[in-house]
Amino acid sequence: MEESRIRSIKRALLLFFLLLQPWLVLTGFAVEFSLTASYNIGESIFTIYNLERLNTPAGFFNFDIGINHSSEAFQFKAIMSARNDGVYNDPFSESYYAGYYFNFKEGSITFKNNSLSISVGKTHLQDVVDSPYSLFISSVPIPRNVLDFTYDDGKFFYVTRWIELCNRSEAGLDTREKLRSANYKVYALRLGNLRFGYQDVSVYAGQNFSFEYFANPLPSFFIQYVNDAGRPYPEGLGETNYISGFFFDYDDGKNYYYAQILVDDINMNRFLHPESYQNPDKIAWSLGLVQKTSIGTFGFYHAGATKYTFQPSAESGNQRFYGYTYYTDFVYNTSMILPLEFVYAGYKYGENNIAFMFSYVPSDIPDLNTSFEFVVLGERSPVNAWNDRTTYIPGTHLLDDPVREYRAVGEISYSPVISDGVKLFASLSAGFIWNASTLVEIDSDNVKKPLLRPQHGNNIPFFSVNIGVLLSKSF
User: Fold this and answer.
1) Which domain of life is it from (predicted)?
2) Residue 119 to residue 125: CA distance in whole angstroms
3) Are 184 and 161 in contact (CB under 8 A)?
4) What is the 3-state secondary structure (H, E, C) of 331-359?
């Protein structure tokens, strides 16, 4: 059995290199191998949510092994990680792999030709704005299966990107909960150092891939409207959520400024029918600046989102599954909580919060990075529409909960290059969390999925140290 497995691996590798060989010949053979090894002591983002659940050792190791080939016409990336932090597990981790589990960090291929690029694979492609608080694509690097088509001629650029949100195989799940995807689009103009554009996302449930949302260059609002209306019969996906917004940024090499807004739903009745019902605005915003000076580079970022933003809906008691999240649950292995920063596909903190970050890089020590972040969070649930209610509270809401969570965390990191192919890195994070949120099971509504609610007096110190080395070799 073992020999058969080895032969299968050898055949797969041989086939891979045979398929890759024409591109290596055309673009020039250049491959980089890398190994990253790091050791973490103290808390992590998982411990914030799983203080009583996570059996994390006092310290844990992380290893990343990668292969990268890059040229003007072609790029190939493959990175896998091995960790023993106890967050995930598999049937062989204890008996065969000494407590380590494996995961993908990158597995993608990109074809480039002047103004056109096409990327496919399991990867994380960032938002159009460069920010820790980007709204349409999360700044947290969570690899998902994507197909990205980007055109950029220097004055106009267009992006259409299919993103597989989740493709689950568990028996008994609703098809809409098993298969969920999104299509992200950008239409933008570049005027010198200034860019301005429109962004939209369509989240659809019950189907893995929609050719029309990906291939039709019209804004997704019109695709949803025409297909669902019926010409002569409905051709839409049925359960779809449309999200849109705008961005602008300015970059002259020394200074960078940006602003971005996202609208999941807006209350027009305040203008059209003030006497009628007032549904909540589901809006997120983000802005920031980075400025280079003689003493260093300073950065400031701010973002926020109103209550219910990125949530699915529950109409007439029927649960919907089109929330802009990677998964339809954030509890796994019976009681483990997946940090919500790993659940939201858009703005990493999701709904009902405001966040501020300051950063500084000294000009005489460019390998040193410092930052301080302050976040205020209210009650939130990315998977349960209207949280613990059967419908929304009329009007727009932001942090009007009786108890709010406060996070204040500072970080300092240093990553010097020791020699060709050797880079060290070390980081220290320290801070405090007041009224940390805890899991609350909900049975008072029709959805009956949990939420996170800040708890008065649940105060947690945060301290983490990470040290490591990156080794790379090019051929």
Assistant:
1) Bacteria
2) 9
3) yes
4) EECCCEECCHHHCECCCCCCCCEEEEEEE
Domains in the chain with CATH codes: 2-474 (2.40.160.10)
| Residue 454, strand partner residues | 437
Lookup result for tokens 């992590």: 44
Q: Where are the beta strands (DSSP E) in 114-229?
A: 116-123, 144-152, 156-167, 179-191, 194-205
Distance separating alpha carbons of residues 351 and 433, to the nearest angstrom: 18
The amino acid at residue 93 is: S
Q: Which residues contact 232 (CB under 8 A, 6 or more apart)?
A: none
Cβ atoms 266, 258 nearer than 8 A: no
pLDDT in tens, 350-392: 999 999 999 999 999 999 999 999 999 999 999 999 998 888 8
What Cα–Cα distance (Å) separates residue 416 from each residue in 101, 130, 423? 29, 23, 6
Distance, C-alpha 283 to centroid of its chain: 18
3-state secondary structure of 175: helix
Q: E strands along 55-155, which residues? A: 59-70, 74-83, 101-113, 116-123, 144-152
Name the residue type at position 15: L
* Per-residue pLDDT tens over the stretch 191-247: 999 999 999 999 999 999 999 999 999 999 999 989 888 888 888 777 899 999 999
